[in-house]
Amino acid sequence: LIGFGVSVHIAYPPDTDTPGFALENASKPPETLAMVPADAYPAEQVARRLLANAEAGFYHLFSPDPLQNLLVSAAAGVSPRSYPFIESLLLPVASLVEALAVVWFDHHGRKMAKRYSAETAGVAEGPPAEAKKVQ
C-alpha cells in the first residue's frame, strides 16, 4: 500500500481503564486476574501515545507499557521496525522475557484448568451412586 500513499499501523493497547475493561474484569477467572497487573492505563494516556506514534509514521504503535513494547518488538518478524538497531540489541533480553512470560502464563493456565476440572467433576456422570439408589 505504500506505493499508493496509504499508511498502515497496528496498535497493541495495554489494559486500558474504560467501562468495557471494568465489565470484562468482573467476569474474569481469578487466575486471569492474577497473571496481569491490576492497574490499567488511563484511556487518554493510551490514546495520546498511540496517536503520536501513528502521526510519526510508525507501523507498530508503542503503548505506554514498556514490557509490552519489548515483547511486540521481539515478535515483529519481518514487519517494518521503528528502531531496528536498538531492537536487535534488546533481542537477547526480549527472548528471556518471552520465555519467562510463557512460564508465567502457562502456570496460571494450568491452575485454571485444575480449578475448572475440580468444579465440574461429576457433572457429566450425574448424581453420585447413593443419590441414584434413593430415587
Q: Output the structural class.
A: mainly alpha
Number of strands: 4
Relative helix content: 55-70%
Order of strands in the sheet with the most strands? 1-4
Radius of gyration: 22 Å
Tell me what portion of residues adopts beta-strand conformation.
Answer: 5-15%
Low-confidence stretches: none
- Reading the helices and strands in chain order gives EEHHEHEHHH
Instruction: State the major sheet.
Output: 2 strands, parallel
* Gap from first CA to last CA: 70 Å
User: What would the principal axes of the Cα set say about the shape?
Assistant: globular
Arithmetic mean pLDDT: 81
The number of helical runs is 6
Overview of the structural elements:
This protein has helices at residues 19-26, 30-35, 43-55, 66-74, 84-120, 129-134, and strands at 10-11, 16-17, 41-42, 60-61. Helix 4 (66-74) crosses helix 5 (84-120). The chain is built from six helices and four strands. Strands 1-4 form a two-stranded parallel ribbon. Strands 2-3 form a two-stranded parallel sheet. With 135 residues, it is mainly α. It is globular. The mean pLDDT is 81. 7% of the residues are buried.
